[in-house]
Amino acid sequence: MKFPGSVLVSLILFVAETAAALCLSGAYRAAGDRMWQWLTLLFALLPCALVQLSLVFIHRDVSRDRPLVLLLHLLQLGPLVRCVEVFYIYFHAGRVEEPYVSITKKRQMPKDGYSEEIEKEVGQAEGKLCTHRSAFSRASVIQAFLGSAPQLTLQLYICVLQQEITAARSIFMVLSLLSIVYGALRCNILAIKIKYDDYDVSVKPAAYLCIFMWRSFEIATRVTVLVLFSSVLQIWTLPVVLVNFFGFFFYPWILFWQSKSPFPENIEKALSRVGTTIVLCLLTFLYAGINMFCWSAVQVKLNDPDLINKSQNWYRLTVYYMLRFIENAFLLLMWYIYKTDIYLYVCAPLLVLQLLIGYCMAVLFMLVFYQFCHPCKKLFSSSISEGLLSCFKFLCFICKPPRSTVLMDKAEVKSENTDEARSSSKTIDSQKGNPHQSVSSNA
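Above: the chain's sequence. Below: its structure in token form.
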């Protein structure tokens, strides 16, 4: 049975970040910065409540008589209780023979074009551990992008305004960045396991390293760009954030309305149509929050029974990173034009270059992951290099002028050349006739 290390990491990050947020809010209160205190508490407690709700919803605790567990969730102690339960199950598994086991069938990764199907017995204890791992993975994603990402942006913005980085704030920002990167990493692993659920997937350490580097560069540069832009053009910060957020929020709904599919009713039997709509809105809300800061590996598809797009779409990935790079470059250009005296001792061109190179490094690690380290790369219908090449050919085809225009331009050039040739021949003939005229006049 696999050691539940992901559950332990999620709990450590959750507890450490919450404790650091409470300590920092206390420091803001002592300094008289009430606005920063309340914003820090808001971005710390709101995701905590959403994490408790997600854990309760996944484990179906509301439908069972478990008042003590529900009370502990209300006291924000749900993850701690769940972690104790996970390790209790892990250390007591195998001591008592389980009367019932379920058999799962998984296919191995293809070797030389052949894929074997293997059967595996899964006991009740291992099934409960899988449920706990799945719950903590989803909780880590919620904590990362609805709490840690806004929190990191806020604390870095405060550092820029106050031109000071305290020890408590720097520790808190490091914890927030680690939480976001870990949430993005769990999102990647979750997407792989959902898309390739029929296969026995094992992720190697090199893949984890590539994902970690990819997400670290991507999220750090994105947060820094947003903070720099908001520090000089505060009035335009809200429109930029709202356009980004609502664009990604409504994108799955637009695709759903275009498909003309029936409204999904099989999410949860106990939910009414209103409850299903609320759950779908929360899902797209989380999807928009993820895409605000980085590419979401889990692509929402509302007309699919699993609500997840299981196809590998290189075109959407390419368009996202191209548009995001252009947006980051534009925001940095606006910051460079309107920067204030706060950045008097900052080498602005070098900072812009470093941020753009950092984002390119994120794209490079992403390409390395999908090309060499993806655990299911043998199942791709086309590699990412082929997908990017076809995307660039398509973009070049769009940018290329129509053939009729080119033919018309050539015809115009040809007619101009013939006119010039005719005019030049006429001048030559006139020049040849001038000597005869001069001789006859002399005679």
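The longest strand covers residues 101-107.
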